[in-house]
Design a protein that fits this description.
Largest sheet: none
Radius of gyration: 18 Å
Shape: globular
Distance between the termini: 14 Å
Number of strands: 0
Structural class: mainly alpha
Order of helices and strands: HHHHHHHHHHHHHHH
Strand content: under 5%
Helix content: 55-70%
């Protein structure tokens, strides 16, 4: 199985996971459980599988947020809602959101869950804290909830591997966004403001990348910068594809065929904003 399969799967799994943060059901569930504001909800719902962890643990696992932004939410969030309550709220809300946005999701879930759960089961959790924590959660009895949980675990598997590649290349949490924005044409403010970096810190990161020969003085990527970004994405794909090799080619094709229409309905529903700091495209690439 080629590494490119991992990118194709990411494009159809990520929308199913993203409802966790953006769907009105999820925002309301966070408010109901006691969390205050979007970002406390984001940090708490994503970190809850790890337990009542410290800000330092979240900074390390999430990687690309300004430490001060994390510390405004964690560990304070656990004083408003225990991780166990957050886990129940996020799973119920995400499941309800998927049922609303994708009316046919239950039928697809019955066929998808066995494939995804087999992939989750064989994946290597070493060095992947968010993936391992999500895999360790009880599987929801609702097949739509089980679909959402498997999608969440696998997107965190990819994300943990991505962080490993970025850090191996000597990039820090701000520099990765500067390089991404330069290479992909994403407005700097979308990433800078949604990750808590100041304009001064963004400029300092740009200067560091320029000193490495990755950016030109005007902020455009050099050939070396584009090459590094391509290498990071290719290596991320290569690490992410490994558990999918538990599937036959026919099963892999069926997986993409079933997930694609679900992802398309989420993407066109208006639930997820575009552009967004997750890097999720408004339309998935067709393979």
């Amino acid at each position: 199985m080629e590494a490119a399969f991992a990118r194709a799967v990411w494009q159809v799994l990520e929308p199913l996971h993203a409802v966790t943060y953006f769907a009105p059901e999820s925002r309301e569930a966070n408010r109901a459980v006691g969390l205050r504001g979007f970002w406390m909800g984001y940090f708490a719902t994503r970190a809850a599988p790890l337990g009542a962890v410290t800000a330092g643990a979240v900074e390390a696992a999430f990687f690309n947020f300004h430490p001060a932004m994390v510390r405004r939410a964690v560990p304070g969030a656990w004083g408003f809602a225990a991780p166990e309550a957050v886990l129940r709220a996020r799973a119920g809300a995400a499941t309800a959101a998927l049922r609303r946005v994708v009316p046919s999701v239950a039928d697809a879930a019955a066929r998808l869950v066995p494939l995804l759960e087999r992939t989750v089961a064989v994946a290597d959790g070493a060095g992947r804290p968010l993936f391992a924590a999500n895999r360790g959660l009880p599987t929801p009895e609702d097949p739509v909830g089980a679909l959402w949980q498997a999608a969440t675990a696998l997107r965190e598997h990819r994300g943990d591997g991505h962080v490993a590649v970025l850090t191996a290349e000597g990039l820090d949490g701000c520099e990765v966004h500067v390089l991404f924005a330069a290479c992909e044409g994403v407005p700097a403010a979308v990433l800078r403001d949604n990750r808590g970096w100041s304009e001064e810190e963004w400029q300092a990161a740009s200067d560091r990348l320029a000193a490495r020969g990755l950016l030109e003085s005007g902020g455009h990527p050099t050939a070396e910068g584009r090459g590094l970004r391509a290498h990071v994405e290719a290596r991320t794909d290569a690490l992410a594809v490994r558990p999918y090799r538990a599937l036959t080619q026919a099963e892999a094709d069926r997986l993409l065929g079933l997930l694609g229409p679900l992802a398309d309905q989420v993407l066109t529903s208006g639930t997820i904003p575009f552009p967004n700091p997750m890097g999720l495209p408004a339309r998935r690439e067709r393979t």
